[in-house]
User: Fold these one by one.
Assistant:
Number 1:
Amino acid sequence: MKNIILIGSGNVATHIGIALKNSNFAILQVYSKSIQNAKALAKKLDTHFTNDLSKLKSADLIIVSVNDDAISIVLSQIKNTAIVHTSGSIGLNVFRGNFSSYGVFYPLQTFNKEVDLNISEIPFCIEGNSLEFENQLFKIAKILSNNVVKMNSKQRRKLHIAAVFACNFSNHMYSIANQLLEKNDIDFKILLPLIKKTITNLEKKKPKEVQTGPAKRNDKVIIREHIDTIKEKEIKELYQKISANIIKFHE
């Protein structure tokens, strides 16, 4: 499957498209609801573009990289062809038997089209409606990445939830930390060595094993002092709930 069409022009489509092109796959066309966005990505990939699904070219594989709530709408307008989506939370049932070869090509990473990344380090989670098609997808992913895993829809959904905790929620914690520091004229970058050390520790040990802090120690005096110091009601409540959960987790 060397000839590929990209449905979507956002962060995921951009990185996957560039990686495929650099690996000598032929990107025949880019579709986006926005003709300007389709044109912008097509220019990077030196290919054709459209904002009309009825004008898709013939290809070996279509990769759908759009918002989760738009996947079924897009699929309803595409004729039977080998096709995958790149969502972590949507299963195979979205294809509803309208395609003979279909599956999931999910890269586990946070993407920004303006930020370069090494796609060979990104885990790809692969699922197909048949063993033959799944193996074909696996081979494509192995060309792009050193970390490819076959994973069913139930497993991938759980993985996506875990990723939200590990990435999205933790980044929000950084945002709260930054907010607290800014109000006291402290640069957030002072926390970077601490954050980096925590990540490094996780390379050899489980998260529970590297947990530190007053909640881990069940240090009620420090926890109460922190709670009394925090002025923002929502942050105070969040601190209390997370601390209580950590204490229970390490009982």
Number 2:
Amino acid sequence: MKTFDREVAVGLTLILGAALLVYISLHLGNLGFGQTQGYTVQAEFPNAGGLQDGAPVELAGVEIGRVMGVTLTDTYNARITFRILPTVTLQEDSRAAIKSKGLIGERYVEIFPGKGTTPLVSGGTIRETEAPVDIQEVITKFIFGNIETDKDTSDEIQ
């Protein structure tokens, strides 16, 4: 009888420990089952620059939401849909930019608040966006300079 009681106690402890581990993982990862907290906002960019679903959305360095989807529009732009916390109110004239943490860090959406008084409604669109910087293009231009102007000036000298 004592062996059975110990087995039940150990089993219940293991189940409780696994449930606690799942809860902590979901809480720390800001995940959940069917969470619909907050409101959705969209923004269109010339390209997504490697932004993935689940990427953070930040305002003043504080995470205020997550990217819900990255899709292609009819005009070949990237439409980013993200969910914003219900405690954060964005204005209609807010701006959005795709940034990266460090040189090759993960991509995220940075929101710059607007100065207007009209709040952005759920399902609304942020009109002003900044395309992500292509670091390879910047490095290439820095190292090699503008090759086309170098060719033009060398032709004029001869």
Number 3:
Amino acid sequence: MATPSKSRLGRGLGGLISGGVAAKPAPAKASPDAPAAAAAQPAPTPNGFQEIQVSAIKTSPYQARREISPDHLTELSESIKSEGLLQPIVVRKVGDKFELIAGERRWRAFQLLKIKTIPAKVVEASNASAAALGLIENLQREGLNPIDEAYGYASLIRDFDLTQEDAAERVGKSRAAVANSLRLLGLDGELQGYVGKGLLSVGHAKVLLGIEDAAQRAVLARRVLEEGLSVRATEKLVQAKKAGHAVNPAAPAATRKLASADAAAVASIEKKLTSHFGARVAVQHTPKKGKIVIAYAGNDDLQRILEKLGVEA
């Protein structure tokens, strides 16, 4: 997937602001008859941002990021504790609360540190603009895995009745980039998980989408992982499958040279590791190098495996 230049993304962000997202602080709506609302009102700071009660902020329903790594959150918390917050969060006023537009990880880090207020830029934004601004923030600053990025585009298109071209314009991407990203949502949940965790590349995923049957696609994906196949080797695998030939073409030469005794030893190691960790383990072995891939399901499962390894999260 092509990565847009900063200037292109910048134009996308600028277009949203000029299209009705004002950078000025939202007007205060405190009332002596509503103490809860009054308590949530931000306190202005000399730099133009506002100090907002952390407890007065809620998450956005349009957040593209579906999971936040506990490790990354801990690292960010330590950085904020040491260096302070380098970039304020962005919020909009919704009722008597503030809704996050950008900066959920920073907000959660403040919660972890038990800091009661957080610097924020309060803007006025429509639902569509808030969703697009949040997606742009993730793409530019905090990064999304390819699956979360695809779901972000899908949300813009579905929730706000946009075309792919409209969504691309709002986030400063090409229509082709958005269309290619959305194709990943044609993968079943298992394969989306592989791509989201970086076990399969986007290139692998696009090739595997050439197999229409989801069950056959999953079988091939597991083989790609187990044998450490390249995108090119995966293409040959898919072509052979579609042609109805025996699917045995493209393992790396070093893998093909493994003696049967070595292959049996690797299989035995995989079985023992799978039993030890209580998770599927693939050993990708060649005479000169290799790697061990441990699959896990979510944060709790990762924590369990780390404990097995004797690693502190």
